[in-house]
Design brief:
Number of helices: 5
Number of strands: 0
Strand content: under 5%
Order of helices and strands: HHHHH
Length: 154
């Protein structure tokens, strides 16, 4: 989900950005390890899909982040397709997995879908910031004020 054209004017607006809803309710509804890592790396507000911390990167690094995140999203998508193909093949040949295996299968699909969505959002945000320097500069100024003095900026 790319960030909107209506970017926040204040820190209050930035903190109101809501995370991607879980794909399947009841399966690990908390922030994923990927979301937690991105938040920690950015030293920014929790639960922000606008990825404000990446505004501190140069256009070249934003481009690299865009390409890498896009590849990660594609790998997650390929993983989902592979799992579905494997399950289809097993069922075609009469295999009936037990309930515990099916639960793990569904959980893995859920995690791959969430990670794919988050990588895709990160790639979109990196491309947006790379291509919109005025917006990037405005948000980067806000991020610099928000980051504690002793926090590493990468």
């Amino acid at each position: 989900m790319p960030i909107s054209q209506d970017l926040p004017e204040s820190s209050t607006d930035m903190e109101e950005v809501v995370p991607v809803a879980p794909t399947i309710r009841g399966i690990d509804d908390g922030p994923s390890p990927l979301e937690q890592a991105l938040q920690a790396l950015q030293c920014g507000p929790g639960q922000s899909l606008a990825d404000p911390g990446i505004t501190l990167l140069s256009p070249a690094h934003l481009d690299l982040l865009y390409m890498s995140a896009r590849l990660q999203a594609e790998q997650c998508h390929d993983g989902v397709l592979l799992l579905l193909d494997l399950m289809h093949g097993a069922q075609t040949h009469g295999a009936q997995p037990d309930a515990a295996l099916m639960q793990r299968f569904v959980e893995q699909l859920h995690h791959l879908c969430r990670d794919q969505q988050r990588w895709h959002a990160l790639a979109d945000n990196a491309a947006y910031y790379r291509d919109n320097s005025r917006v990037t500069d405005r948000i980067a100024s806000w991020v610099r004020v928000q980051v504690p003095a002793d926090a590493p900026l990468g």
